[in-house]
Structures are given as structure tokens and as C-alpha cells.
Specification:
single chain, alpha/beta, Lyase, Ornithine Decarboxylase, Chain A, domain 1, TIM Barrel, 2 domains, nine-stranded mixed β-sheet, eight-stranded parallel β-barrel, 12 helices, 28% helix, 24% strand, globular, binds pyridoxal-5'-phosphate
Length: 443
């Protein structure tokens, strides 16, 4: 791995606040260390940019925010206030959407595992539900029999060969995606035929999320075209929505050093296909997009404090009070964009160092091979771009979870408190001795 030089100035602006070293010490005095910072203004900006780009191309666009990427309740609520629907993939996420006050009709229920109760509940609530597997058909049919006078609307997640004979663009190089109902082997057609036997069931939408390595504009052109063609073939008179899923790039920090498509470019490609394919249709279907990473990755930073600088043999280790689990739960080795806020303001001479965390794991590296002025005790290191798959993914491991502080213009407030011992070892959850349980099971 090559050396990594920190790009840009070492001061940090969050919303309308300049985070000088002194300001961070005030944050620490109030909220403790380490902590996460949520930039609410940036979140709104991301949403508005995406919405504007898509609605310019295709006015009937609907944004369903992918909860699993970051289901911090405050963040979900903020997006809901901006107009986002909730895209959920479990009953837990569904119930959270309800808890933050979401209208169930504005919930899109996806995911490979739904129980009969989940499906019936979502149908009763008139949520948008996309079936992912054949077993879910039985739940829908059963609901249709129990509620013969109810008009039941269903979407289907479809699976088609995205790469044909080309190299697969799926994440991790998988040849075949495991999600949705397969078009090529006839399962989709069979499923549609089975559902259409029920007079009160209507298939109204097709969904096709693919997680690709490239996140290329061309992929979205293909996905949209395929979904439109399937809709026109199987549900020509009923098509209410085409859902192309998420998987797009958001704005990337300059340190990533790659050029990625803009929201306008994605919107232009997808919108053009939608407009062409439904040119002769009076009631245009909705276009649904389900952004996750592109909406929230750059809205959260993680602030950790330097505790010690250790020299071992010829290597320098900067120990901080956070962990790789707080910023990169998948433990990838790419360095995130970062800033060092130094208490004396001046950098020492440049050295190469690693930033390591509080756990007892050898591999707890928050950053590798940084080439910059060696940090000092009590400096702060801020890791940016940690909004996606961190808050939801990090298990509280060895230490309690840090708090999440929101910055909204110049207001600063908590959206998650620091976890305490009592919450970590919740007595409603853990049984500390046999006597704590009321019942014994004997087999
Ligand atoms: C069905 C569905 N929609 C949306 C998303 C969000 O994708 P991303 O975070 O890449 O935008 C995912 C992520 O895996 C997904 O599975």
C-alpha cells in the first residue's frame, strides 16, 4: 500500500460552524469523545440535488430512502420531511418508519425475507410491496382469499442477466444476482400468471435493484430499459411504477481521486429511457429510485482523540479512542478522507504513521500509511464520509457506542446519546442468572 497524504486544509466546516480545535474541545466537554457529527444541511442539500436532477428529466420521480444504509431515526425523519418515502427491507425497519410518523402508504417494502404477517400487514396498510421470492406469492394469495373485496396491488422484484456475455459488473464479481424472481428461466412469467388468476390481485410495478462495482450510468440505462420492456409486456394496462433501486454514486471527496457520474447524468440516462418507453402513455408511471450511500455517506464524520503515539521498532502508531468498527465495519483497507485538528495548530515534520484503535484486535487500523505531520497527544482526528453502513453496522464491541451530534445551521444537538453500561447490558434483554427467567423449558 502506498503512502496517503491528507488533502486540503486541516480545518473543518460543518453546516455553518467552523470546527477549530477549540470548538472540538467544547464538543468533547459537552458530549464526550469519540463522537459522530451529522451534518443536517448537507443531508438536505444531497436530497434536493438528487430530486432536482431527476424531476427535471422525469417529473414523476419518487425518492425512497434506503433505511438500512443508516436508520438513525432523526435522519430518516428529516428525509421524510423533505418528501422521501421509506424504503425498508425488514419489519424492524418498517416499524421504525411507522414510529417516526411515516404514512404506511409511503413505505416501500423490499427484501428477501418477509413473513406472512409482514406481507399481510403491509398489504392491509396499502404500502408498496415488492415480492422477492416465490414463497411470498402464497402469502399474497392467502390474503386475497381472506379479503375478496379488496383490490390488492403488488410489485415484483425481477432478476435478469445484466451483463449477458460481458464480464459481470455485480459487486464482488458475482456472475448472478441472488435477488428477485428470474426472468430467463420463466419463473417471472409463471409467478405473474399465478397471481393473475386472482381477480382482486393486480401487479402494478417492477423493481430491479442491482449492486454493481461500477455504478455506471450505462448500467442504469440497461436496468430501466429492461424493466420498462417487462412492464409493457406483462402489465401494459396496470403499470404504476418502475423502481430502478439504488446503487448510484453520490458526491465523492476529492481524496478518492476518481471521476464518478453526477446525479444529472444518472437522471438523464434513466429519464430518457422512461420518456421514450412511455411516450405514448397518457398516465406516466412513477419512477422510483432508492438511494442509500449516495444520500448519506458524506453527511457523517467521526471525531476521535489521540491518546498516545507509540514507536515500535521503526513504525509509528497513533492510538485514538475510536476503532475501525466505528468507521469501516467491513474493515476494508482504503483510507477514508480525514483531517487532523492539532492543539498547537502547527504540524511537526512529516512522518509515516498508522492510526489504530482501542480494541484488542491486531487489525484495528483506522488508517494505514499516512504521510503527514505526526499527530500529538490530545489532537483530534476526524474521519469523513462515514454516513453509510457504519451506524447500522457497528456492533457495540468492547466499548459503548458513541453519541451522534447533529449540526443544523448553527444549532448543535444530540440525535443519539452516548450508550451507558446499563443500556449496553440491558437487563430487559440479558439474563444475568437463572433466576431472572420466569420459565423453564424441558424437552
Ligand atoms: C433493494 C435496495 N434498494 C436500495 C439499496 C441502496 O443501495 P445504495 O446504498 O448502493 O444506494 C439497496 C442496497 O443494497 C437495496 O438492496
Amino acid at each position: 500500500m502506498g503512502l496517503y497524504e491528507i488533502k486540503g486544509e486541516n480545518n473543518l466546516h460543518v453546516a455553518d460552524v467552523e470546527l477549530s480545535y477549540e470548538n472540538i474541545t467544547k464538543l468533547e466537554a459537552n458530549f464526550g469523545s469519540p463522537l459522530y457529527i451529522l451534518n443536517v444541511n448537507k443531508l438536505r442539500e444531497n436530497y434536493r440535488k438528487m430530486e432536482t436532477a431527476f424531476k427535471k428529466q422525469y417529473p414523476k420521480t419518487l425518492i425512497g430512502y434506503s433505511y438500512k444504509t443508516n436508520y438513525l431515526p432523526y435522519l430518516c425523519k428529516e428525509l421524510s420531511k423533505l418528501g422521501a418515502y421509506a424504503e425498508v427491507v425488514s419489519r424492524l425497519e418498517y416499524d421504525l418508519a411507522i414510529k417516526i410518523g411515516e404514512n404506511p402508504k409511503r413505505i416501500i417494502f423490499n427484501g428477501p425475507l418477509k413473513s406472512k404477517e409482514d406481507v399481510h400487514y403491509a398489504l392491509k396498510n396499502k404500502s408498496k410491496i415488492n415480492l422477492d421470492s416465490y414463497y411470498e406469492l402464497d402469502f399474497v394469495k392467502e390474503y386475497a382469499l381472506i379479503n375478496p373485496t379488496e383490490k390488492i396491488k403488488i410489485g415484483m422484484r425481477v432478476n435478469f442477466d445484466l451483463s449477458k456475455d460481458e464480464e459481470s459488473s455485480l459487486q464482488n464479481g458475482y456472475k448472478v444476482s441472488r435477488f428477485g424472481i428470474c426472468v430467463e428461466n420463466g419463473n417471472l412469467e409463471k409467478a405473474i400468471r399465478e397471481l393473475m388468476e386472482f381477480k382482486n390481485i393486480q401487479i402494478v410495478g417492477f423493481h430491479g435493484h442491482f449492486s454493481t462495482r461500477t455504478r455506471s450510468v450505462d448500467t442504469y440505462r440497461k436496468i430501466t430499459l429492461e424493466l420498462c420492456k417487462l412492464a409493457k409486456k406483462y402489465i401494459p394496462n396496470n403499470v404504476e411504477y418502475i423502481d430502478v433501486g439504488g446503487g448510484m454514486y453520490g458526491e465523492l471527496h476529492e481524496s478518492f481521486e476518481i471521476v464518478t457520474p453526477t446525479f444529472d447524468e444518472y437522471a438523464e440516462a434513466i429519464g430518457t429511457v422512461m420518456n421514450d418507453q412511455f411516450a405514448d402513455t397518457h398516465h406516466k408511471p412513477l419512477l422510483i429510485i432508492e438511494p442509500g450511500v449516495s444520500m448519506v455517506a458524506n453527511v457523517i464524520s467521526f471525531v476521535s482523540k489521540v491518546i498516545e503515539i507509540k514507536t515500535i521498532q521503526n513504525q509509528q502508531f497513533v492510538l485514538v479512542d475510536g476503532s475501525v468498527h466505528n468507521i469501516k465495519p467491513t474493515m476494508h483497507t482504503r483510507n477514508l478522507p480525514m483531517k487532523i485538528l492539532r492543539h498547537k495548530g502547527s504540524k511537526g515534520h512529516k512522518e509515516t504513521f498508522n492510526i489504530v484503535g482501542y480494541t484488542c484486535m491486531e487489525k484495528d487500523y483506522l488508517a494505514h500509511n499516512i504521510h503527514d505531520g505526526l499527530p500529538q497527544r490530545d489532537d483530534y482526528i476526524v474521519f469523513e464520509n462515514v454516513g453509510a453502513y457504519t451506524i447500522v453496522f457497528n456492533p457495540p464491541f468492547i466499548k459503548e457506542r458513541p453519541c451522534i451530534v447533529a449540526f443544523d445551521s448553527n444549532k448543535i444537538f444530540l440525535t443519539r446519546k452516548s450508550e451507558t453500561f446499563k443500556q449496553f447490558f440491558n437487563e430487559e434483554l440479558y439474563c444475568f442468572s437463572k433466576g431472572d427467567t420466569d420459565e423453564y423449558l424441558t424437552l
